[in-house]
Amino acid sequence: MRIATANFFDGSIANLQRRQNALQDQQQQLTSGKRIALASDDPTGAARAERALASIGRVEANQRALEASRNSMTLAESAMGDANELLQQARETLVAAGNASYSDAEREGLANKLQGLRDQLLTIANRGDGSGGYIFSGQGSASPPFLDQPGGVSYVGVAGTVQTGNIDNFQLSVDGRGAWEQAASGNGSFETAPRAIVTDPATGAARVQLIDPGATAANGGVPVPLVNGITGAAASGWIDIGRVVDPSLLTGHNYRVDIAGNSPSQTYTLVDQDLGSVVASGAFKPGQAIVADGMALTITGTPVDGDAFAVAGSRNGLKLFDAIDKAIIDLKTTLRTPVQITQANAAALRDVDAVMANLQSVRSQVGERLNNLDGTEGRLAALKQYSSEERSAAEDLDMVQGISEFQNQQTGYDTALKTYAMVQRMSLFQYLT
User: Fold this and answer.
1) pLDDT band at residue 293, thresholds of 50, 70 and 90?
2) Cα 220 from chain centroid (whole Å)
3) DSSP codes, 337-354
């Protein structure tokens, strides 16, 4: 085998270059703190790090969506808190309007106060979310979701909510219709109102029809304008909002309470109009409750023979602005009798309480979503930390081991340099001898 001097030089230089490259790679790892710079360095570790990086990206996207939802829900909760304060002022105004010593002019002043509160409530209902949208726009609207028209305020947005497209489905808006226009009427289980015995001009049949307590006249044959040209005589007593004494007995049917006779020998008859049967009857005394089918109804005032009152199932369609507008119209109506004033105020207070309860219910739901966001935020933070640790375990360098290997590579490189220095001073003849 022939050995030339050039072979020794080439072998020494190649070894020196390998040592130098290894030393540079180790130095680069120490500088970056990463043991994987290219996928070829460790394909399995690189894939593991890539999966962890993708998980971190998803978590960060969810965190951005969570913050957007938190901002929207915080604004909505604040808006409904402001609305609740205004409704409380409206309720106090209606309580004051029930003062029997007030004149029509004083009640009109209270109506003007209610009008101001109503305008403030409309501003809150159309409050923006700071990003070009509206808090109560539902599924989105380029214009304010509530429109004030001659016939009253109407919701022109799209009912529902906007949610993010991730797994958690963070809510970004509030259903304005559900918050402002879907309160349960009456006491939440049933609704009471004075009624009139009327004659239907189409059929000539006598029947009982719901009338507006704020626009009726006292009993005594005074015609009361109703619907479709029907007229009748209004009750001279008034009925309370009623209360539930046994929820299991509620039927949701329509009832009629008829008062017969003259005081003090009056009687009442409670008729289930859906079944056409008498539910209860007996001696009537103003102020004493009539209890039947899980309901307790109290009629007060001075009802006379022929007065009629009605009970109907509650409906989820009471609108906040309709309730306020009706109370304003009632307070501005002059020359009302004490019966009309009492019944109208009772109905207005009942409706304001109902819309307040509905708004508070939606507000509590928003508050619960904020609580859920806090919990989700902690979960996302924990998941991000886990993914970061997983990525670190896959690609980060063990500094102690890295320094040790760097020192080994440096020693090897120094040795290769010394070997090369010795070889380049030797000829083949000197090396062989």
Assistant:
1) very high
2) 49
3) -HHHHHHHHHHHHHHHHH
